[in-house]
Design goal:
With about 350 residues, this protein is α/β, with parallel strands linked by helices. About 40% of the residues lie in helices and about 10% in strands. It has a single domain, classed as Metal-dependent hydrolases (TIM Barrel). The protein has 13 helices and nine strands. The strands form two sheets. Strands 1, 2, 3, 4, 5 and 6 form a six-stranded parallel sheet that branches. The chain has a three-stranded parallel sheet with strand order 7-8-9. α1 packs across α2, α2 packs across α12 and α11 packs across α12.
Length: about 350
């Protein structure tokens, strides 16, 4: 495939600032930063609806709600330097079918990036990230949402080629043989991680795959903290925080401290109702409120972006797609955050965490 066409705002930062209604200072800081999203779910629509990741899309039938928030050309235009692109598990399949489907999906996702090799590269470490950026490529990490994708046997994780998957979200919106979800879909009883779930955490650690504790129940979170290798940082890639808005999907301050103590980072997601807004009335300022709480509680080294773009979310009205992301930088500057703090949130905190495990 030929190179993807996109508008390169680096040639005229002032024009981009004017189009977004923000300062040139905010745009220049954004362009000078590593901008990395910890959770992009667009691949699910490629699988289910044939959503062409290499084609530039508009806001879609729902006005950039639910999906049509990200595609490869818009990622390039938005100057998102890296992201974790996620393979989400269908829990209704059998264990054998989930494993077989995961292998097909992994091959398919890798093939999507291979269609545009000059502009996208799959990476497994910070060193590979920097090498891709030096070549002018978007650096794509791979993640798995739902550890039950590979729970068919104790050695099922060996189906993953060495290093290709950066992290696995142990559970998703439903409970599994690995443990309980935080979602109401999992029922009222919090049983935490099962014995298999505890072994799964150890197996991820042994393979240097990040244990992602987004979606897990509170008891399951602490079970994972107890059994994971304390030399490995933990991730929570897409969440809100109860210190900003109390919700079943969000982490409390003790959980924030546990992730920070491990050396990990917490990505704030953009689902309006989890941030404390109405679905229709979300604002990017609510993302900032959650980020600011993480910074004030455990420090900027542990705050990141984990949008959940295209993960059936209803994003803020003033930031419906990845193209408006520099507006968040303006909000951070208006709040009085330093350039160093902003750059940590945009990407450096995540790179620091990845370097601790993979270099």
């Amino acid at each position: 495939m030929a190179r993807l066409e996109f508008e390169d705002h680096r040639s005229d930062p002032s024009a981009w600032a004017r189009s977004l209604g923000i300062s040139r200072e905010a745009v220049e800081l954004y362009l000078a930063s590593d901008v990395i999203d910890l959770h992009v779910d667009s691949f699910i629509w490629h699988r289910t609806l044939g959503y062409d990741l290499t084609r530039r899309h508009g806001h879609g039938p729902f006005g950039a709600r639910f999906f049509s928030q990200v595609d490869f050309p818009r990622v390039l235009e938005a100057q998102i330097s890296g992201a974790t692109w996620v393979i989400t598990t269908n829990p209704l399949r059998s264990a054998v079918s989930r494993a077989e489907t995961f292998e097909r999906n992994l091959a398919d996702l890798l093939a999507q990036f291979a269609r545009v090799p000059e502009q996208f590269a799959v990476v497994k470490s910070v060193a590979e990230y920097h090498a891709a950026r030096a070549r002018g490529q978007h650096a794509a990490f791979i993640g798995v949402q739902g550890g039950n994708a590979l729970d068919v046997s104790p050695d099922a994780l060996d189906r993953i080629p060495a290093g290709v998957v950066l992290r696995v979200t142990v559970v998703h919106l439903s409970s599994s043989v690995l443990g309980a979800t935080s979602s109401p879909l999992g029922g009222r009883r919090d049983t935490g991680l099962t014995g298999r779930g505890r072994e799964y955490v150890r197996a991820l650690d042994a393979r240097k795959i990040f244990v992602d504790l987004a979606h897990v129940s509170r008891r399951g979170f602490w079970d994972a903290v107890e059994v994971h290798d304390p030399s490995h940082p933990l991730l929570v890639t897409h969440t809100g925080v109860t210190g900003a808005f109390d919700h079943w999907r969000n982490l409390d301050d003790d959980q924030l401290r546990a992730v920070a103590d491990s050396g990990g980072t917490i990505g704030v997601m953009y689902q309006s109702s989890f941030l404390g807004d109405s679905i229709w009335g979300g604002r990017a300022a609510s993302i900032l409120r959650h980020l600011a709480h993480i910074v004030s509680t455990v420090g900027a080294d542990h705050a990141s972006l984990g949008s959940d773009w295209d993960g059936a979310i209803w994003p803020p009205r003033d930031m419906p797609t990845c193209l408006e992301l520099p507006k968040l930088v303006q909000l951070m500057l208006d709040q009085g955050m330093s350039a160093d703090t902003v750059q940590k949130i945009l990407g450096r905190s995540f790179l620091r965490t990845v370097a601790l495990l993979r270099g």
